[in-house]
Amino acid sequence: MDPSIAPASRAAAVTPNDTAMVGARALYIGTAGDVAIAPRRDMDPVIFKNVPAGTILPVHAAIVALTGTTASNIIALF
Q1: DSSP string, 9-71
Q2: Which residues have a Cβ under 8 Å from the Cβ of 43 and sit 6 or more positions away?
Q3: Contact yes or no for 22/66 (Cβ under 8 A)
Q4: Buried b (16+ CB within 10 A) or exposed e, 37-64
């Protein structure tokens, strides 16, 4: 199967941080709120507003920023 469309094979809890690399291919949001994601290290984060609990965001997340993130219980999918 093409790895770019294969389901995630690993997961890890995310602690939002303005500089730490995550490198996830998607994020599971456990507790609703805003999620600030930088798709690449050299880009400013974009804030996804009011993400409901239980949502899987199918976006590449190089960084899940602390500044702007109010959601919690975030899981990175690789």
Answers
A1: --EEEE---SS----BSEEEEEE-EEEEEESSTTS--EEEEEEPTTEEE-S-BSEEESTT---
A2: 62
A3: no
A4: bbeeeeeebeebeebeeeeebeeebbbb
Q: How far apart are CA 26 and CA 71, in angstroms?
A: 15
**Overall average pLDDT of the 13-32 stretch:** 97
pTM: 0.92
pLDDT category, 5, cuts 50, 70, 90?
A: confident
Do the strands 46-51 and 11-14 form a parallel or antiparallel pair, or are they unpaired? unpaired
